Amino acid sequence: MPDRPVRIGLVGLGTIGSGVVRLLQEHQERIDERLGFPLRLARIADIDLERDRSLSLDAYALTRDWHELVADPEIELIIELIGGSDVARSVVLAALESGKSVVTANKALLAHHGQEIYACAEAHGSDIAFEASVGGTIPVLRALREGLCADRIQAVHGIVNGTCNFILSEMEQRGDSYAACLRRAQDLGLAEADPSFDVNGMDSAHKLSILIGLAFGIGVLPEAIPTEGIEHVAPLDIEYADRIGFRIKLLAIAKERDGGVEAWVNPTMIPGESVLGRVDGSMNAVEVRGCMSGPTLYYGAGAGPLPTASAVVADLMELARGCQRGVKHRVPPLGIPQLRDLPLRRKEDLEGEYYLRFTALDRPGVLSRIAGALGGRGISIASVLQLERHASEAVPVVMMTHLAKEAALRAALAETARLGDVTAPTQVIPVEREL
Known about the structure:
Blueprint: E1 6-11, H1 15-26, H2 28-35, E2 39-45, E3 61-63, H3 66-71, E4 77-80, H4 86-97, E5 101-104, H5 107-123, E6 128-129, H6 140-147, E7 153-159, H7 162-174, H8 178-187, H9 196-199, H10 202-216, H11 235-243, E8 246-257, E9 260-271, E10 283-290, E11 294-301, H12 305-325, E12 351-361, H13 366-375, E13 381-385, E14 394-401, E15 404-405, H14 406-417, E16 427-431
Parallel strand pairs: 1-2, 1-4, 2-3, 4-5, 5-6
Antiparallel strand pairs: 7-8, 7-10, 8-9, 10-11, 12-14, 12-15, 12-16, 13-14
Helix pairs in contact: 1-12, 4-5, 5-10, 7-8, 13-14
């Protein structure tokens, strides 16, 4: 193989970093064959070098000091896999400023500091690649950046958190409570000991922030995205959804509409026979709708050391080709030279259909009082659903609305909450039919 090797430095030897080392060791010959030149991991930096990772590290120069690795003139590419935003930001910026290109799987880093990092890469003629930051092994970012670049993206709908999708799938299949299914996910290693970042929707919001940048060319912080997790979804909601041919999924949604982008993360009712409606277990899927291309689907394992490592090494191979050919910054990180001036629409201005589950005393006139509060705000009821009567004074009253403004709905629910008949907070789940 006549071409010189491209040498890599890895910062972070945790679960994903160990997966990258394993993949490079087991697929080295095939990777070199596909590239036409050697790609070699040369140095590894991690604060814990004693822990047994069931890997041979004898071939690599090991250090606890990432500065030393980044400064090594023989290292051309850096992989950042330490996670978090603070130290990772320093590592990535230092590497880019030294003219070295970087691969990262760090969604939090890009969601909060992406614009700074992309600008740094451009200023220093370096590249930043981050396919593994959303959807693990699913090549949806590359599709948005290059495969669909001639089209105008209209909408993105994503199941991008495998933990939440597993829990909701288990609740549906077993009829168990959210808490019981969360414990099962933890026992299987699919949920962290502290699962809050996943189940409260923030992990999905970070990923949606990145997807919005690539799909619509605007910068949005995850904190600006209205976000609700799955903690309050009950088996009763899943049962009602099933009765009308729907399933509940935690969706990350973004649409370009009315001169802006609307985006949110929310448990959402979607048709059970839709493509996303059939995504079960811990799998991820993202549907992208283009003006000309129509819907395209990207499905696969959204997490795990080896699927994520596969996406990391694919990015690595792409950047290594650029190193060999002296070509960097072939495509801007978001696929466009500069961000668009397109606002994020306010949640209260959005319009949609809703599933509403009231908990109300079983008294005459309750239904009409609730309907009156909704109708007084211009919200019309599409249907009223009831299962068997419950053996308690408080019963579920379920309504499906026609299109309604979010602001009007919230005002109506504030009014129903003041009714003496309504005894608990109302469950609100948006409905997405066009999938």
